[in-house]
Amino acid sequence: MELNLRIAGEAGQGIETTGSVLIGALAGLGLHVFSTQDYMSRIRGGLNWFDIRIADKELFAGTRKTDLLVAFTQEALETLRPDVRAGGLILFEGEGAPGVLSLPFTQTATDVGGSTIMANAVTAGAVFALLGSDLEALSAQLKTTLADKGADVVEKNIACARAGAALAADHAGSLTAPAGAGAPEHVYSGGDAVGLAAATAGVKFVTSYPMSPSTAVFTYLAGVADEYGIVVEQAEDEIAAINMICGAAYAGVPAMTTTSGGGLALMSEGISLAGIIEQPVFIFVAQRPGPATGLPTRTAQEDLRLALHAGHGEFPRAIYAPGTIQQAYDLTRRAIETAHRFRSPAILLADQFLVDSRKNVAALDETLRPINRHIVDGPPEGYLSYALTEDGVSPRALPGSSAFVVADSHVHSEDGHITEDAQMTVRMQDKRTAKGAGLTADALPPELYGPHKADHLLICWGSTYGPCREAVDTLNAGGASAAGASFASASFAMLHFAQVWPLDAAAVRRTIGSVGARAITCIEGNASGQFASLLRQTGALDTCELMLRYDGRPFMAGDIATRVAQ
């Protein structure tokens, strides 16, 4: 049992506020929720919408169709009306539209609350009435959301919500809401999860040049800076940001920066600097379509190759790509730990879809639990910053300790001083390269979802986890009718990669082989199949079909299932 609710209108009309209030209130009813956003790159105007999918089972993705459309503009009504399912409802902030329920949200907000701003509370109340849901959950959410606005504002918004419910009273219960399933009440976005994980891991310095869609993490950390003791600096550009965290890391401070594809391109030289001075910098990248400015507020998986090769010269790095809110939290901490353990850069590769998606999950730990920085306590006499070691990881001491700690961007000897000695150049390169073996041994294996033996295997990475997982469930539930004659009685499985570099190619190849699939499809949000080519390049996979999407929108489970079945 599930429904999808869509709130649509122009930027500046409170679309996100309405959606945020609703998702919190519906989660409070014990429903599983999953929300996505579609918005244009403008401060005012345009067509934006906020989807809230609710169900009595856990959800992992959005859906194309909707059961309720709340349209604040004529454009929203005309553009999105075809997506309303048969038997669905449309609420419209306007007059004279056939086949819709016209409700004066803004006027009611003015009459009851004295402000047009409270139209989102009126809208939420009307939606709750249509669902036949208890308004007390909505009132409780408004109290939480508006707690810092004062009691008068809270009461006016609650009154507006009741007025909205009264407006829709004649149609109360028209949409049958799923029964509460005891789902978690805590709702997080992907950006929240990354920010919270970084804060609890002990990051003490974050500097960035704001760039959508990565800014959500930057602003989250700014919001909790006092609580966790974080210095937040808006840099003049991405070049300054990466160089500042290199300096902070050298001084022993767990540091990070946030950016998107264009910013990562500018950071390349600084990433290379981190590679040769062997400092544990952490870079959060939220992908969006390119080239150049591309689609600033849309989603993509186009920067895998850039993340893998950013920085001139050769040096190891780890790249993670979470697929869920929980993974975003867990892998942020793991990436920061990995950077410090191996004295190498680590990158968390997300995208707009994951950053902006919201979902209720078990409460994420907010306790400050600083990671191990792997710093030598009391460096011995004769300490060398870049001592040659079997695993390539040199003991790390901090400047200002009893050791003389040198860092230099040129090729250097073990003590950190510049050298052009050919043999030492090779030794230092081999030392850094040796870390790759440790990083590979430490790499996360891909997760197999579905039957361990399957006729068709879907391979995905990063945020395509949710849509692919739901597609597998749909295909396996539908059997021959879903898959068509060529896949009569077929079974389907998914192999998801939450770490995309380094890859243990031999282990991946064994896993793929164990499934025994006669068809393999790699699903990616880019135009060239970047991850599939990486699997082939490393010898993990011989061949596969590609299912690609690169229009700036996320995959939908139904679309994947349909295309696989063709």
Spatial order of the strands forming the largest sheet: 6-5-4-1-3-2-14-7
Rg from Cα: 26 Å
- Domain module count: 4
Task: Output the CATH homologous superfamily of the largest domain.
Answer: Pyruvate-ferredoxin oxidoreductase, PFOR, domain III
Summing up helix and strand content along with how strands pair, one would put the structural category as alpha/beta
| CATH fold title of the largest domain | Pyruvate-ferredoxin Oxidoreductase, domain 3
Q: What separation lies between the terminal Cα atoms?
A: 27 Å
Quickly give the CATH architecture of the largest domain.
3-Layer(aba) Sandwich
Biggest sheet architecture: 8 strands, mixed
Which CATH class of the largest domain applies here? Alpha Beta
Helix content: 25-40%
Features:
566 residues, alpha/beta, Pyruvate-ferredoxin Oxidoreductase, domain 3, Rossmann fold, eight-stranded mixed sheet, seven-stranded mixed sheet, 20 helices, 20 strands, 39% helix
Structure in words:
The structure is a single chain. By secondary structure, the protein is α/β, with parallel strands linked by helices. It has four domains: 2-185, 3-Layer(aba) Sandwich (Pyruvate-ferredoxin Oxidoreductase, domain 3); 188-360, Rossmann fold, CATH 3.40.50; 375-442, no CATH class; 447-565, Rossmann fold, CATH 3.40.50.920. The chain contains 20 helices and 20 strands. The strands form three sheets. The chain has an eight-stranded mixed sheet, with helices on both faces. Strand 19, helix 19 and strand 20 (545-548) form a beta-alpha-beta unit. Helix 1 (15-28) crosses helix 5, helix 7 runs parallel beside helix 14 and helix 10 (238-250) runs parallel beside helix 12. It is globular. The relative contact order is 0.09.
